[in-house]
Design a protein that fits this description.
Layout (H helix, E strand, L loop, with lengths): L1 E5 L2 E8 L2 E8 L2 E10 L2 E4 L8 E3 L15 H5 L1 E10 L2 E10 L2 E10 L4 E10 L5 E12 L13 E7 L7 E6 L21 E5 L8 E9 L4 E7 L5 E8 L2 E7 L3 H4 L3 E3 L4 E3 L3 E6 L2 H15 L5 H4 L3 E3 L1 H5 L5 H14 L3 E4 L28 H10 L3 E6 L3 E3 L4 H4 L7 E2 L2 E2 L1 E2 L2 E3 L5 H18 L3 E4 L16 H22 L4 E4 L9 H4 L4 E3 L10 H6 L9 E2 L1 E2 L7 H12 L4 E2 L8 H21 L3 E3 L11 E8 L2 E8 L6 E5 L9 E6 L8 E4 L4 E5 L6 E8 L7
Parallel strand pairs: 22-23, 22-35, 23-24, 24-30, 30-31, 31-32, 32-33, 34-35
Antiparallel strand pairs: 1-2, 2-3, 3-4, 4-5, 6-11, 7-8, 8-9, 9-10, 10-20, 10-21, 11-18, 11-19, 12-13, 12-15, 14-17, 15-16, 16-21, 17-18, 25-29, 26-27, 28-29, 36-37, 37-38, 38-43, 39-42, 40-43, 41-42
């Protein structure tokens, strides 16, 4: 880090791993990002205050819907900055003050990662209350400084939408265009007031939009990727000023999610963390974000072990497990090579109508005449780790736990417990709620030796709770943070327990959750032909080794269809279901071949960065691909969902000029898809067969040094 003073302007250059951020300020100006750099490329950028705060008594200037151009942000002035190091982690704290308010921007980065985490802490130093409406965790300009004429020219936005069964639908759009029309705002003497704003409310943090995005300019060789690391409400926005454009990232706000917070004298508030990664291209920026995720992930033995999981739910038992149904599946899963067997929903239900009665998590006596332990023992005797499905945060309206737990242990509005789809929602700020869940998890681990929990989450209770909270959004934020603390405590007590993150598929696949949990169920999609775009896009939101995309082959399928299902899960955390016990010997052998391939690929997947040789997948694309690059190896899965045999060109620019050897990872015994490698253009052409649908996974190996 270096600090300089030029022409009454001071700067601090901070190296966040392979990325560089220069901050500047003056006696009459707040701290702002002056330039960003990566891999030898530095761009001076449009100046906006690095800290933006909107309060009840000081809003935006001019009036707007934005996070930025706040009155407080413009008034802040530099006090000091401190750099420190703890092991491989470096941090920078920049302190500013204005009118009785202190704001500290903190950045953290790990060595060799072209990215950083940012948070802001606001403290009220005055005798008057400070009522916060929003505090941005990060704000920066990204267009070149001085590019007032068509500043957004060449910039593209990569953003994602989600829905149940249709998670991770990504699009690339030009920022210059309908979202930012020519306003002739330079004639007004004011910045525009609008912005491209994306928000999420409630607790399904990824139920509609994704807290991950990329802005990229190919002409500038620059891309900025970001993620908001929060399991509740959040907001990101892109806006254009008269002198350039900006990006701002935030947790909950008053206008979006009913969040406000009064701070008394010497009281503080810290924003939700966000992270930013830089690259010379969008793929490079996602690779940097992938590196960041690996460095900030909770340490766990499962991170490298990545056991193959069989789960009885998807397109199989569908929440109706019994001893009679499970024992044959257990035997078949073990024969195929699964290492974990998870009993999914219904194991606690005697009535056959379990949805509204969940909450006590006691084993059914009618489903398991010999006791649940009989089935658990069969799993363990087959050499697999036993697992159970759990939806811990909810209590059904018909559950005994709804009466035994105190009223204040649930999210409330005006003293009434919130009900969503016949469930109450626990408020994990309350000690009784946490004690109840601790008892459940500890009992299942102690009494049954459970080593795997599929943690589901199927309701969204809305904007929050007003019990013991300054606002509804404040109550939700406190609950969100209490939930993360509860998860940390569970894993501290049970350090080898593997917890899968699930939420009606992937309605809560944010990094706050995924930094703690082993794997993510990427969807509840039951049509195997619709799953590839979800599986291929998953590494934009999570680590490849966390992405558990269901592979659910069935006995009525052809061999090509079975292989298609299995390829869908192969470049992630292998997650198998299906009636393996009803398959022919040849079909079971095909599944076992895929399991062996998944185990062989684990060391590569756990270190690889994603790329997309046919482009980011579209929901209806005929051909979908996902690539993973690690050292001298690339893995590529290619799905052909519709049409006829074709010649598919896979773009692999990072391999241009190299000798490449191509082999089929899976399936080995189905018709070969011939390939041709063009080292000059970095293109692999794959000749597919007439089988529809069909899929293959390839391994590409190459010398680490280019050929002459």
């Amino acid at each position: 880090m270096t600090t300089t003073t030029l022409s009454h302007t001071s700067t601090v250059h901070w190296d966040g791993g392979d990325a560089t951020v220069a901050f500047a300020w003056a006696a009459d100006e707040p701290v702002h990002v002056a330039s960003i750099g990566v891999d030898g490329r530095t761009v001076r950028v449009h100046a906006v205050p690095a800290v933006e705060i909107i309060s009840a008594d000081r809003g935006s200037v001019p009036a707007s819907y934005r996070l930025v151009h706040s009155e407080i942000g413009a008034q802040l002035r530099y006090v000091d900055h401190v750099e420190s190091r703890h092991g491989t982690t470096r941090s920078l704290r920049i302190r500013q003050r204005a009118g009785g308010i202190e704001a500290v921007l903190q950045l953290e980065s790990d060595d060799d990662v072209a990215g950083f985490r940012a948070q802001v802490t606001v403290t009220n130093l005055s005798a008057e209350p400070l009522v916060l409406f929003s505090v941005a965790s990060w704000a920066m300009g990204f267009t070149a400084d001085g590019s007032t004429d068509r500043a957004l020219s060449g910039w593209q936005l990569v953003s994602g939408r989600s829905d149940w069964l249709a998670e991770g639908r990504w699009t690339t759009t030009a920022l210059e265009g309908p979202e930012f029309p020519d306003l002739a705002e330079n004639r007004t003497g004011h910045n525009p007031r609008g912005a491209f704003i994306v928000t999420s409310d409630g607790t399904w943090s990824t139920g509609r939009h994704l807290p991950v995005g990329i802005i990229a300019n190919d002409e500038l060789d620059l891309a900025v990727a970001w993620q908001i690391e929060h399991n509740g409400a959040w907001r990101w926005e892109i806006g254009r000023d008269t002198a350039g454009a900006f990006l701002a990232l935030s947790g909950p706000t008053d206008v979006d999610s009913a969040w406000s917070l009064p701070l008394g004298t010497d009281e503080s508030f810290t924003t939700v963390p966000v992270s930013v990664a830089l690259g010379r291209s969008r793929v490079a920026a996602i690779a940097a974000l992938t590196d960041y995720r690996r460095r900030t992930r909770r340490s766990h033995v499962d991170n490298a072990r990545m056991p193959v999981v069989f789960n009885d739910y998807m397109n199989t038992l569908d929440g109706d497990p019994t001893t009679e149904k499970l024992l044959p599946l257990i035997a078949s899963a073990a024969e195929a090579g699964a290492e974990v067997f998870c009993i999914d929903a219904g194991w606690y239900d005697d009535s056959g109508h379990w949805w509204a009665s969940v909450g006590e998590w006691l084993p059914s006596t009618t489903r398991f005449p010999g006791g649940l332990a009989e089935v658990i023992d069969a799993i363990r005797a087959s050499g697999m780790v036993p697992g159970l499905w759990l939806e811990p945060e909810v209590v059904g309206v018909e559950s005994a736990a709804a009466d035994t737990l105190p009223q204040d242990a649930f999210l409330q509005r005006s003293g009434v417990r919130v009900v969503e789809h016949h469930r109450y929602h626990l408020d994990l700020r309350h000690p009784a709620a946490r004690a109840h869940l601790d008892e459940v998890v500890d009992r299942l681990v102690r009494d049954f030796g459970i080593g795997f929990i599929k943690m589901d989450y199927n309701i969204n209770p809305g904007p929050g709770t007003d019990r013991d909270a300054a606002s509804v959004g404040d109550g939700l934020l406190q609950h969100n943070r209490a939930h993360l603390a509860w998860l940390d405590a569970v894993l501290d007590r049970h350090p080898e327990l593997v917890i899968e993150n699930c939420s009606s598929g992937a309605m809560r696949q944010d990094w706050a959750m995924l930094s703690r949990l082993a794997m993510q169920s990427t969807s509840d999609q039951q049509d195997f032909t619709k799953y590839p775009p979800i599986a291929a896009a998953a590494p934009l939101s999570m680590l490849p080794e966390q992405a558990a995309s269901w592979a659910y082959p069935q006995p009525e399928m052809s061999d090509e269809q079975i292989a298609f299902c299995l390829v869908t899960g192969l470049l992630g955390r292998f997650y198998v279901s299906g009636y393996l016990n009803r398959m022919t010997g040849g079909q079971r052998a095909l599944v076992a071949e895929a399991v062996r391939a998944a185990k062989d690929l684990r060391p590569i997947i756990a270190t690889a960065a994603p790329h997309w040789p046919t482009g980011l997948p579209g929901w209806t694309d005929r051909v979908v691909s996902l690539g993973l690059h690690a050292g001298d190896t690339d893995l590529v899965s290619l799905w052909q969902r519709d049409g006829e045999a074709s010649h598919v060109a896979l773009a692999l620019p990072h391999l241009t000029g190299r000798d490449v050897t191509v082999s089929t990872v899976f399936p080995a015994d189905l018709p070969d898809w011939p390939t041709e490698w063009d080292a000059t253009s970095g293109t692999l052409t794959v000749h597919t067969t007439d089988a529809i649908p069909a899929a293959r996974t390839f391994r590409l190996t190459t010398p680490l040094n280019p050929t002459a």
